[in-house]
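User: Could you walk me through two proteins back to back? I'd like the raw sequence and the structure tokens for each, with a short line separating them so I can tell where one ends and the next begins.

Assistant: Of course. Protein one, sequence then structure:
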Amino acid sequence: MEKSLLTGKWDAEKSTFSQGAIADLVKDVVNGAFRGPLTSSYARDMFKIRSTVDPDQPFDYLFNLSASTVDDEKAHELLRLTLAVACLHAFVQANWTGPNLDVKPSDVIVIFPETSSITDDVLDAKAIAELAYGGEPAYHLAESPTFLRLAQLLINPPYQRIQSAAWWRLRVALVHQQILDDFVALPQSVLSSLDPLMPNFAIHPHIAGRLLLEQGLLEHHFTHDKSAAEYFIRAARATGLQYELTGALGKRTKFQQTVLSQLVLLAESRETEETESEHITTEPPAGNKDVSDTKATNVPEALTLNDDTLLERTEFTSSTPSAPNSFLSHLSPANQPPLHPLDQCILLSLCLNVRNTSPSHGLTSEQMSPYVERVISHPINWSIHTMALLLRSRLESSRTRTVERSTLQLQALIDQMPTADSTTSERLLYFHSIPLPSKWEMERELALRFLSLGVVKSALEIFERLEMWEEVVKCWQSMERLDKAIAIVRDLLEGRKAEAAVIISRGKATSGNHRQVFDSAREAKLWCLLGDLEPENALEHYKHAWSISKETSGRAMRSLGGYYFAQGNFAEAIACLRHAVAINPLLSRSWFILGCAYIREENWEGAKEAFGRCVMIDDEDGESWNNLASIYLRIGKKADNEDAKVSICGARDLKSNLN
């Protein structure tokens, strides 16, 4: 049953060994039917609000999550894990994969008459406040955040009998990271607890491959590119994926007369029982026919290019790669077999790593495109195909002939999220194996795409609907309407401008005009934004943001540190930036400014530490490496001078003694 939860597939042959009520709950969760398990009698025992508790208490005081009618310890832990997975995937379905969720927190949580004031909106507002972490606020328009908070509370306590609990902690933590404004450091316990898992799953190649791939995506999320690449390569070895980036003769334009060597990715999955269970057809598409002719009916539509010059795909004229010693020379570049879906995920991850480790120019896009085209050519899974089309859309956004399809494809991917063209279980099957962005992140990307094309009004409408006020302010600044930007932020803080109706209902009336209540992290962010817009009052606003957040806002301390540095008050800048890096030590920009402040104060040891942290976060940060080298030279000269002073003093003492 643990394996079924991890892989998202219920093994019918082994289901006879998993009879009972809890096994039925596991099967429902695997099949994407979350309402049944979350409203079961087992769940209601755990999700029962204590009648004697103040509703303003945190979540872990509201519920007795250890309560259960199951006596067996192992069965109780399995039940707790099953409900945690159901809560996590319900939240993912609502905010990432769709279709629309058919269960609400109020359907799950048992509310007594004494606590009848606790509604869905109150629970979600409390969850958003508690999901703020490391000084970073959680996105306030995320749907049903109560489910993510419940998943955290269910998965975080120790498990003695369930091996895969540590893996699910990683998955919950990664989803949590994606709703925060900036990524923050994970507890070391989350990372160290994964190491003992690999020997347990070594006999299952595709499960071992999933674990390595997800660890690589974690490193990718924190921009540790070398470590991520190592995990991706190990994942490919575990699943038996063979791939090679090579060249083959072909054409890219309709009027091209001479065939030239074109970049192509040759890839082949290892044949296993698991590969066969995916029902992958081994008959590749004939010739260079369009992807749309071979697409599955339950995957997003790949829009055609319809360009008068460029071909839809590279037309390979050679049946063998250009490299004579290629170990995949038996594959035809124009007629490759389908890949296992997990191998497709690995190729997309390797593609992302190409982007992270190379400068942003045309050569990088050319190197990434073969990875994406290899996955798009055989659409198998909804989420994987969505990710591949999204990557192609990003690659095409900078080219004149493809920018139109790029924007339309991104819009189409956003529009198909709420549709029911595929099952929930299929959409979640490989969700944890790809870096699929949330609904609001995809819409934000579309707005930024509009902004890059000069369509500022459309971008502004999207940002306002998503209530991403920092981006709204940037739009008004680009139109040279600073007064409008300041007015929006002030109206939000003073209650004259309302956010979405669902957010208003979460607040409590504090005055006659029903001023909405922000959680402290979001209000602090708005005060910092106002400080950025009003330089003459910046210091006052930043200090107020720090006070409002009860001294937890990393943004406030970063802003104060930057302000003092610009004013030449380096001692105060150091104090503030020290607070900032203590709250969130993963933002290299804070460490960089801190290092510069130490240099101005000639505190070489402090500067060495700060720039050392910069290169630990990003080992290709050239400026930090340069500053670090200069600091070591300074420290060396200082040491030499001190040695010289000691020698001179020693000589004087010797001379006086002789006299």
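----
Protein two, same layout:
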Amino acid sequence: MSLRRMLLIAFLLLGATCCGALLYFINKEWVDFSLLECYNVSQPSVILDCEGRELSRFALDKRAPVTYDKMPPILIKAFVAAEDHNFFKHSGISPRGIMRSMLVNLYHRRVVQGASTISQQLVKLMFLSYDRTIYRKLQEVFLAFQLERQLSKEQIMELYLNNIYFGRGIYGVEAACQRLWDKPLNQLTIHQAASLAAVAKSAYLYSPLNAPVNALKRRNVILNSMLKLGFITKGEYDQARKTKLEINDHISGNPIRLYIQEWVRQWAEGKWGKDALYRHGLRIKTTINLDMQTKAELAFARIVQPLRSRMGDTLNGGMVTLEASTGKMRVMIGGIDFRKSQYNRAMQARRQMGSTFKTILYALGTKAGFQANEVFVDEPLEIPMASGPAWKPKNWTDDFEGPMTLVRALTLSTNMISIKLLFKVGTQNLVRWAHLFGLPDDLPDYPSLALGITEVTVEQNTAAFNVFANNGVYVKPSLIEWVKDMTGNKLWEADFPEQHRVLDSVLYSKMVNMLSHRMNMAQRLSKTGWIDSESIGKTGTTNNFMTTWFVGATPELTTAIYLGHDDNKPVGLYANSTTFPIWLEFHKAITSKKKHFYLDPSLKEVAINWVTGEPSDRLDDENVIKILR
């Protein structure tokens, strides 16, 4: 037998063996897909407060499965139009789609586009990771063939729609329909079916709960596809397309505390993914104190709800309380009702600081050698500008008082003297100084910086003011203590907080004294009692009353509270009747262990007239206060 004939026979045998092996692998039932009918999820993750008490949990929202015959036909058509036009015709994969994605991936030299049919998506959802690799794609194709051999198209579609992820722990179309519209699946409309189908591409990018603008655009693309496939008429398409995407997240839980849960969800999903968060029973210990959080929520709602009734639902706000010595966040309020607005006004919203920024300015002035009893003149100013007309700032009272001390100017928030002090210390010096308080890098180098035009979050403003409560040391806020898995193994633990000294002991003590006089005035005027410890604080209102602030601290806790309209309409009220009452009511409801601020023993109290700056022994005079020298 010739060598050529022997090689030919060998190749034929090898080919037959390979074909046989391939047929064996394809035809053998490697996975029993009937077990998917019993598919179940496991342990929910739990958020704990600083003492180990449950704040909330990430339980899966997964309702009883809906059988295929009970699913609205328009829902099936929407998902076919969105994900797999030939679902009821192919055998598990789309050759045309695979060729298209191969060309795109070859062009980019990496896997950037898939060609997954609904069958492939189901096996990926149930059995595989979401890694974009060639090996994982081959596994997906192989298992899709297996799936198609064992289950009917109707069974595949039923499993897919009952297990698809819609974000926020929502699995399956029935749960999504209940959460998004508070209605059963059989009442689904055309535009709602397309909205659900839009999420299949990516819950993160297209869920109406996460990205309503993207969800609307994707919904309209799917409606167009449904029209082209003949699933809906032109009239139905026009009607559905012009329908607004109205979502009302019917999520259970405390409407204010849900802001904490959502912040933790985003943080934890970014580290371990949604499967770990909703199925693997993580224990996430936060720095939040449940008792303080509850009392803060009551105080916040008691003041804000009546204001919203008078001024409209766009009025909202945020609140953060830090433990002064550690920077641990004991309270976080992102708004009045998470179900109506998921925008976190404590951690996301950046608003002008207003007069709360003056605490930083006056600290720099004191560091530069200006004393609390130094006299400046409150008078009209006209400041030339490099371009445009001269700037003519005003006081919030629209009046000028003439000579007064710096401590009075800070307490009464006099704008003219703050601007004069800025010119004394220098704008660039103030910008560098403010960075030490944790403020953003983009501070404006303008004279109006003295009036607090820089924008910060409530968290940043709290941390900045906390320097005055924490012996002059800046501490970066933290919200998570540690994370453990369901067996108790620690997966993550917070590092020692970032901190640095800003004020020395003498400067810190002088600022505590200067910031105490506003609180002393409030205590004398209060008709509802006072808190059980010393306190310091500063109000803040921005131009046209768009934002009202109060930042205040005791020796233990520092709190910042912001109120304003989400659409930037003027509030028309001062902090004395908005944010300050929230702070006062909250602190009256809690007990302080540490009653007094530390003051440097090298300083002595001196009684002065806070208008003239002259020493005075007339302590019964309302213009006489005690400063530290």
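The mean pLDDT is 88.

Let me know if you want the two compared in more detail.
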